[in-house]
Amino acid sequence: MEQWSWPPRYDETYRPPAGQEHWFPRRETMPSHERDEAILARIREVMGYAWDNSPFYRRKWDEAGIHPSSIASLEDFEKVPVVRKAELRADQAANEPFGSYLCVDPAEVKHINGTSGTTGRPTAFGISERDWRSVANAHARVMWAMGIRPEDTVIVGSPLSLYWGSWGAYIGAERLGARVFPFGAGQTGQTARTVQWMRQMGATVFYGTPSYALHLAETARHEGVDPAGLGLRKLFFSGEPGASVPSIRSRIAVAFDADVHDSGSMAEVSPWMHLGSGSTEPGVLCWQDLVYTEVCDPVSMRRVSYGSEGTPVYTTLERTSQPMIRLLSGDLTRWEAPSPDRGRTYPYLPRGIYGRIDDMFIIRGENIYPSAIDDVVMADPGYGGEHRIVISRGTAMDVLAVQVEHRPGIAADACREWADRLSGRLRHVLGVGANVVPVQHNTLPRTDFKAQRVIDDRDLLGEILRTGDGGTA
């Protein structure tokens, strides 16, 4: 296997010859069972390294009665207890700033990224220079598989902040040899300037979130620019579901007249492009020699069979500063067996990551994922650009309403008929009734980053009922 060593070492001068489809042909196309043997050996090395250098892992595994030497198969590895995000936050609080799962001397940490901390204590990612370069090399490989080449100009259209996604795309494109344009996102009026700069600089590849790409296309039209004329040939995404959801994917591809590629898992396990497109078809491959992915039953934490749905559990195979070993994602996906017909012999997620287990809500006994609603409403030709999902409980029954913008110029009677038809399609897909409420174009807020489309006011109602506080503010 090309440049397969522990700790990782890469030839920074290497780049595939022009016309070569794979960055590392042997690693990417070898029989999957042979790769699994190498991965098992690497897992034992990574676990041994963590045992020797991390009090966090040593304590956790000792309590479970597990030692790295006892892992004789990938099935044995499933017995290793999963790590949850809450454990990482608690460990960092007790062992500031990087936690006792940091496996290098703190002086070796040269880059700091992290979570925003909007839902609790922020998590700091302490990244050594070795890991920074490993992520760059890994992302370059996956971007090469997407068809991105040194002659491209890649615009990074997401915040240049603690967010790992922007920096991962940046250093991957840089390592690949492309021209990188870190324009960012999130400031007032910046989207219109993005359109101007894309035209001026001749950007050919865009990175961001699917929601922002749709907002960018809408802004371009408002500025009198056809987004299909901007010159993009590829867009690749992470940060939220969408790039493998058929209706969202189609809207982006048609708007920009360009190929769409999905990627991304969790910032904690960067290189997050280890789930990444290997062609122009929807879905992502699990690049198992970068991060070993298990799709697991969310109760037993054992792997589910191919063709089944579960939650991904990730193990980094190249990180030395903060290795993640069986980190539970809480996301939702379905995987399929490796097939050489896809050009690379990795397991395949045909719909990518399409939701989170904790994003699921239950309406009258039916499990509903926001991405299923997104797929229906965004595929409709009358869709006006944005929607919002509102869950309420007026009486004893949950009520699901979807506010959907319609295209301008629709008469009131036609608008009501359109909403009724869309409600019928949602009922057919979801198994429960959903009241579509049509709203005028540009009524709902747009986003420069990740979309937040679900409003669940049942918790507020429940709090009022529990406390008896029915007063108004």
How does this model look, in words?
This protein is α/β, with parallel strands linked by helices. The chain has 2 domains: 1-356, ANL, N-terminal domain (Rossmann fold); 360-467, ANL, C-terminal domain (GMP Synthetase, Chain A, domain 3, 2-Layer Sandwich). The chain has 13 helices and 21 strands. It has helices spanning 25-29, 32-53, 55-63, 74-77, 85-94, 129-145, 164-176, 190-201, 210-222, 246-256, 370-379, 412-430, 458-467, and strands spanning 109-114, 124-128, 153-156, 179-181, 205-208, 234-237, 259-262, 275-276, 284-286, 291-296, 309-316, 327-328, 331-334, 348-349, 355-356, 361-363, 366-368, 383-392, 399-406, 435-439, 454-456. A 5-stranded parallel β-sheet has the order 4-3-5-6-7, sandwiched between helices. Strands 10, 11, 12, 13 and 15 form a 5-stranded antiparallel β-sheet that branches. The longest helix is centred in the N-terminal third of the chain and has 22 residues, at 32-53. Residues 365-458 form the AMP-dependent ligase C-terminal domain. This is Phenylacetate--CoA ligase family protein.
Keywords:
AMP-dep_synth/lig_dom, ligase activity, Phenylacetate--CoA ligase family protein, Rossmann fold, five-stranded parallel beta sheet, GMP Synthetase, Chain A, domain 3, 473 residues, 2 domains, AMP-bd_C_sf, ligase, 19% strand
